[in-house]
């Protein structure tokens, strides 16, 4: 804490270009109010860079990021570039090289945002998803056999190491312990996926002995998704593998009204390397360039960045500003039933912080 904090900014593609300026506006306002020294350096990496140079970022891109205190990312991906190229050319290398093994995604229903679930009040939905972010189902191991023949097949391996599973579970148990409800839910599918998932379940049971004060539930992913929709008030901290965590963290925001408000933190909890903060949503080509994207996911990600740098009051001030703007029903973007532009909503939130 204290001193100057260097933040690498990658706005990326599509609506990333529109929401990142609003995220920066909020960060600058909070920095001013709480006297925090933030220095931003922008990088024009992403699909545009790919089209110009054949790479999502320069060859030494990762090395250049290594000395920053945090990375503030918009979105990467564009229809003209294959998904695996944009993902594996920027996002995944950053997560892996910087050991950002925790992907933390808060899910919260705010007053003023229409909830698609009947009868849910703000306060009913307020939980955290902890996604394992560097191993599991998202591996490069596998391939095709007998390509182009009748016997053609694809094989994909998942990697679950004891080290990797234990460190994400420890993070999740500690997080659950720090919250009033002290409740952890773990997602697997051990009846269908019979090697990796029972291993995860076993590690959960083993670790639970060190956390007798944390109430534990273990569900299969299929029934868990049903519970997310039927009784989201049941959850406090939810931990899952890379794939299951990814799915749950799209579903979570969907039940709170819009994916546009959902933030995420890719954390290296040991702070050996920079952590990265980005909204849950992608580049949204269908609405890009129109100035109508909801900037709250980006702004809230900025609040998580400040938390991580050691300024929880500044982070909380941003979240409180979001809360007040949503509650007031003024300046809502289209996805929340209003007609405000990205910039109008961003400016209203920034003004509320200052
Ligand atoms: P990715 O593959 O990167 O996850 P995606 O193709 O799954 O991206 P998104 O880009 O997240 O999808 O968009 C999903 C839908 O949500 C789109 O219809 C998009 O318009 C909408 N959406 C996403 N983000 C926002 C936002 N900030 N404000 C309003 N609508 C949004
Ligand atoms: Mg998606």
Automatic annotation (TrEMBL):
UniProt xrefs under Gene3D superfamilies: Isopropylmalate Dehydrogenase
Annotated PANTHER family: D-MALATE DEHYDROGENASE [DECARBOXYLATING] (PTHR43275:SF1)
Catalytic activity: (2R,3R)-tartrate + H(+) = (R)-glycerate + CO2; (2R,3R)-tartrate + NAD(+) = 2-hydroxy-3-oxosuccinate + NADH + H(+); tartrate + NAD(+) = 2-hydroxy-3-oxosuccinate + NADH + H(+); (R)-malate + NAD(+) = pyruvate + CO2 + NADH
Domain Isopropylmalate dehydrogenase-like: 6-349
Keywords: Manganese, Metal-binding, NAD, Oxidoreductase
Cofactor(s) of this protein: K(+); Mg(2+); Mn(2+)
Gene Ontology terms, MF aspect: tartrate dehydrogenase activity
Protein name in the entry: D-malate dehydrogenase [decarboxylating]
A matching Pfam family: Iso_dh
Family: Belongs to the isocitrate and isopropylmalate dehydrogenases family.
Function: Has multiple catalytic activities. Apart from catalyzing the oxidation of (+)-tartrate to oxaloglycolate, also converts meso-tartrate to D-glycerate and catalyzes the oxidative decarboxylation of D-malate to pyruvate.
InterPro entries: ICDH/IPMDH (IPR050501), IsoCit/isopropylmalate_DH_CS (IPR019818), IsoPropMal-DH-like_dom (IPR024084), TTC_DH (IPR011829)
